[in-house]
């Protein structure tokens, strides 16, 4: 937990010089049409910065610079060990500027400062460092050819990568892409969300300071339908990597098909089941974790455990424990207070969406147990109480649709088969969890669950060592681990006659 007090953070907020320009070819500059959009803090609706609103012209300029830089070889042909050195320095600079980045993230996106410091900054640094450390340890292959031939199977950087990312973990999502993309030798254009662009803009200068050549990393803030679409339709972008909603992910596949068949890798939404069997080893721990799984980051988490499936024999007892945990530990507070565990929702639109789902739950007959209200309205910020619904069926909208807010639906089940059937009855397949003391049941559930990550007797564990991504409409491809490098490299076979 940070030792910096709320008063100190507020003082730093007043002093903060916020950069809102885009970053192309190693320089900050205005968008070519001089357009900006207001970047408003969800904590109090104060104007943080006027941010460059990039469009097609800026995309053209950034892609052409990225292409020239890539072809020049100044980064793409650098020995991996030298790329590693630059990226390790970049990682160090992220840590050195950790408090500044954490403050920017909290002001821009509304999450608690304690989380920005303890989760977002270290995970961002780790994504860059881990990828840097890996890149001079990944070997190519020699094919199993006959005596008179040599077959080399090599990986090459794809070229120009566009990375379009969401607002819920802005710099962490960006660096899950930037780490392997840059380490592999590509030139990258990063498009942060219009709802939280500030840390991405700041990271560009830190990368340059670390020694990344100009043009290798460009950052284009702006709207999805403008600069995002321009990048996705661009004929000279080789690969598009995306984290965001399944709706936009599908649109990006269409754009790729309409343009140059660029490779498209998608990390999309979720509606993850958290399954608690009656033989869970510790119901108290399971309940506290279920509360955290929906309240952490205001529920604005792709893997949020938003469907809590509880075995009927323990359901009432368990719901009471989750309700107590939410009320005791997860009430919204000021995001700059180091004690706060639930901050502000990202903006008015997201607040309206969340409150709309709460109304829908009540109208469809679910029982509101705790929460349900907007609070702290006098602050001008967007705060909603973590909300628990019991007596939910998997057909209700609150169980089927991704809310992306702190709204938890409890669905009861009888036995293993019904639990798995309900869990898999969703268009999504990002993550799932199972609580049981029966090892065989845990393994059988893990095999049966159609999800990219399965947790047993815990929720939301993970680090850079394992791939992260989804089945079904939660996406394709994987962030993190050595598997992530597949997205940023092309495989080449070279046949040599001896
Ligand atoms: P979103 O899909 O609305 O936007 C994501 C990004 O796409 C933004 O930068 C946006 O500007 C851009 N965009 C929007 N329209 C576009 C278009 N027509 N062309 C090109 N780009 C466009 O998602 P969001 O609201 O920013 O983020 C929330 C979503 O992200 C949730 O569904 C959440 O589950 C998902 N998410 C997934 C993961 C994961 O790893 N699977 C992680 C975090 C968030």
UniProtKB/TrEMBL annotation:
Give the SUPFAM superfamilies listed for this entry.
Answer: ALDH-like
UniProt-listed InterPro entries:
Ald_DH/histidinol_DH (IPR016161), Ald_DH_C (IPR016163), Ald_DH_CS_CYS (IPR016160), Ald_DH_CS_GLU (IPR029510), Ald_DH_N (IPR016162), Aldehyde_DH_dom (IPR015590)
The family assignment reads: Belongs to the aldehyde dehydrogenase family.
Q: Which Pfam families match?
A: Aldedh
Catalytic positions? 267
Name the UniProt record assigns to this protein: Aldehyde dehydrogenase
Which residue range or ranges hold the Aldehyde dehydrogenase domain?
30-493
Checking Gene3D superfamilies in the record gives: Aldehyde Dehydrogenase, Chain A, domain 1, Aldehyde Dehydrogenase, Chain A, domain 2
Record's keyword terms, sorted: Oxidoreductase
Say if the entry is tagged with keyword rRNA processing: no
Can you name the source organism? Zobellella aerophila
């Amino acid at each position: 937990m940070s030792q910096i007090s709320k008063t100190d953070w507020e003082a730093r907020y007043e002093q903060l010089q916020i950069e809102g320009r885009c970053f192309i070819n190693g320089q900050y500059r205005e968008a070519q049409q001089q357009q900006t959009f207001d970047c408003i803090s969800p904590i109090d609706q104060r104007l943080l910065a006027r941010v460059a609103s990039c469009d097609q012209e800026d995309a053209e300029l950034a892609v052409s610079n990225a292409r020239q830089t890539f072809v020049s070889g100044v980064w793409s042909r650098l020995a991996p060990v030298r790329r590693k050195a630059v990226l390790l320095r970049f990682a160090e600079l992220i840590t050195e500027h950790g408090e500044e980045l954490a403050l920017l993230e909290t002001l821009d996106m509304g999450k608690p400062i304690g989380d920005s410091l303890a989760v977002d900054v270290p995970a961002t640094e780790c994504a860059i460092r881990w990828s840097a450390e890996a890149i001079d340890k990944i070997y190519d292959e020699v094919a199993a050819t006959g005596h008179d031939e040599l077959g080399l199977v090599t990986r090459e950087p794809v070229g120009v990568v566009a990375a379009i990312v969401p607002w819920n973990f802005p710099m962490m999502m960006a660096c899950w892409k930037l780490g392997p993309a840059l380490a592999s030798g590509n030139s990258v254009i990063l498009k942060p969300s219009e709802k939280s662009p500030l840390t991405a803009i700041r990271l560009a200068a830190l990368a340059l300071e670390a020694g990344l050549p100009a043009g290798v990393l460009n950052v284009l803030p702006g709207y999805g339908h403008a600069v995002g679409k321009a990048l996705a339709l661009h004929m000279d972008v080789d690969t598009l990597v995306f984290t965001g909603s399944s709706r936009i992910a599908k649109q990006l596949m269409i754009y790729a098909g309409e343009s140059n068949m660029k490779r498209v890798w998608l990390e999309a939404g979720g509606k993850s089941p958290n399954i608690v069997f009656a033989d869970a080893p510790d119901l108290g721990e399971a309940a506290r974790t279920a509360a955290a799984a929906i309240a952490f980051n205001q529920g604005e988490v792709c893997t949020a455990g938003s469907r809590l499936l509880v075995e009927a024999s323990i359901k009432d007892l368990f719901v009471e424990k989750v309700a107590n945990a939410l009320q005791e530990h997860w009430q919204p507070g000021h995001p700059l207070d180091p004690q706060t565990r639930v901050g502000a929702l990202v903006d008015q639109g997201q607040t309206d969406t969340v409150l709309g789902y709460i109304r829908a739950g009540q109208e469809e007959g679910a029982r509101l147990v705790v929460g349900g209200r907007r609070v702290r309205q006098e602050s001008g910020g967007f705060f909603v109480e973590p909300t628990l619904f019991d007596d939910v069926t998997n057909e209700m909208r609150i169980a089927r649709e991704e809310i992306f807010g702190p709204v938890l639906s409890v669905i009861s089940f009888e036995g293993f088969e019904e639990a798995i059937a309900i869990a898999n009855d969703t268009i999504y397949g990002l993550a799932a969890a199972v609580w049981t003391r029966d090892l065989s049941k845990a393994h059988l559930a893990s095999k049966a669950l159609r999800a990219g990550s399965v947790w047993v007797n815990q929720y939301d564990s993970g680090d850079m060592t394992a791939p992260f991504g989804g089945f079904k409409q939660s996406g394709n491809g994987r962030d993190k681990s050595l598997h992530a490098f597949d997205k940023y490299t092309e495989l080449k076979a070279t046949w040599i006659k001896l």
